[in-house]
């Protein structure tokens, strides 16, 4: 008897799906791209495409292909070397996907994204519009990080994170991360033979990070990054499946609800486009440390952040910048567009609304961050 997920509708009713395929599934043991494997994946993706699903593909493999083309003995460790390697390998990666999709009479498109593209509001909306047009035209976008221009300080760092960001951006129904691992275990199976595969978990469960291990050589994303990606997607209301891509016909079977890998469920409702943009920021301009009352007001009572609930102001930022809000233990509670500069925020932290005006005079808003300009974690 085939085991199915308890609520298989999460899978069977998903229309818009972001699929991320890791390097280990697309390369020939580090010897460049495995064209036979890519053809195999294109066949599975085409099957979903013709069943009416809207597919967005996040594909690894550019660096591995670049290494082979340049006959490098090992993956570069410096950023310029990685960027050059990715640029060289990206040519072969896109050509390979385009060729195999054309065999199924499917058009594909190359999309290269940096964190700056998502952090800048105008560029975020432009890329969002482009992706939606491609979806409407029944084109499969092949998405990767634009490694050549990304900086070490502001980059996704792995395609798991990028896939989660894209899933949130296009309001995907499901994110599928395919890897060479079976899914999420309750302990590291490499060091604990008693570790058990978990089939369904809550994406926001803090204990998941304690259970996750490291990654391989060719790829950058270990289980920790995959758990983090699942949490990012969950904040936008998108569930995630992490499954072993070596499983026969894995995509078709998953979409029937069959229990393969681990399903990370989302407790969150869909968030607005503006909140998605806020959540897409990986680099924060500053930080606000909140007291317990402010945390409760934001998370439980769905209220705006007032100056009285701010204990500490960290960093240098201007009005309108995106900052993170953390509790007294340093756990992120929310991100949002702040209504005061760091200098003004430091002057009014902990003050009631009437005292704020005494200190700063007439102000545009009494909220440190308005609820409508905040993404809750």
Automatic annotation (TrEMBL):
Keyword Kinase: yes
Subcellular location: Cytoplasm
Annotated InterPro entries: AceGlu_kinase-like_sf, Asp/Glu/Uridylate_kinase, G5K_ProB, Glu/AcGlu_kinase, Glu_5kinase, Glu_5kinase/COase_Synthase, Glutamate_5-kinase_CS, PUA
Job of this protein: Catalyzes the transfer of a phosphate group to glutamate to form L-glutamate 5-phosphate.
Protein name: Glutamate 5-kinase
Record field: catalytic activity: L-glutamate + ATP = L-glutamyl 5-phosphate + ADP
Enzyme Commission number(s) of this protein: 2.7.2.11
């Amino acid at each position: 008897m085939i085991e199915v997920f308890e609520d298989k509708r999460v899978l069977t009713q998903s229309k818009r799906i972001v699929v991320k395929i890791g390097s280990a599934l697309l390369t020939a043991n580090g010897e460049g791209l495995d064209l036979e494997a890519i053809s195999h994946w294109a066949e599975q993706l085409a099957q979903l495409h013709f069943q009416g699903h809207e597919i967005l593909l996040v594909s690894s493999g550019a660096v591995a292909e670049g290494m082979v083309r340049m006959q490098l003995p090992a993956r570069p460790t410096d950023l310029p070397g990685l960027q050059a390697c990715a640029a060289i390998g990206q040519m072969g990666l896109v050509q390979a996907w385009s060729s195999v999709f054309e065999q199924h009479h499917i058009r594909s498109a190359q999309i290269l994204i940096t964190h700056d593209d998502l952090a800048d509001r105008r560029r975020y909306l432009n890329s969002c519009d482009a992706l939606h047009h491609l979806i409407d035209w029944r084109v499969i976008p092949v998405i990767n990080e634009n490694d050549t221009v990304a900086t070490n300080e502001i980059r996704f760092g792995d395609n798991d994170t990028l896939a989660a960001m894209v899933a949130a951006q296009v309001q995907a129904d499901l994110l599928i991360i395919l890897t060479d691992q079976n899914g999420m275990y309750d302990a590291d199976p490499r060091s604990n033979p008693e570790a058990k595969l978990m089939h369904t978990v809550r994406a926001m469960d803090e204990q998941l990070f304690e259970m996750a291990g490291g990654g391989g050589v060719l790829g950058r994303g270990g289980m920790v990054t995959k758990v983090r990606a699942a949490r990012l997607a969950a904040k936008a209301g998108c569930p995630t499946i992490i499954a072993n891509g070596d499983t026969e016909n894995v995509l078709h079977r998953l979409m029937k609800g069959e229990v393969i890998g681990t399903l990370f469920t989302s407790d969150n409702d869909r968030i607005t486009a503006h909140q998605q943009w806020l959540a897409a920021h990986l680099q924060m301009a500053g930080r606000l440390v909140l007291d317990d009352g402010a945390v409760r007001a934001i998370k439980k009572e769905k209220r705006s952040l007032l100056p009285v609930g701010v204990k500490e102001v960290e960093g240098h930022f201007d009005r309108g910048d995106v900052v993170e809000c953390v509790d007294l233990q340093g756990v992120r509670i929310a991100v949002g567009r702040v209504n005061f500069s760091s200098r003004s925020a430091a002057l009014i932290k902990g003050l009631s609304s009437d005292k704020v005006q005494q200190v700063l005079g007439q102000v545009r808003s009494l909220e440190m961050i308005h609820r409508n300009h905040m993404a809750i974690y």
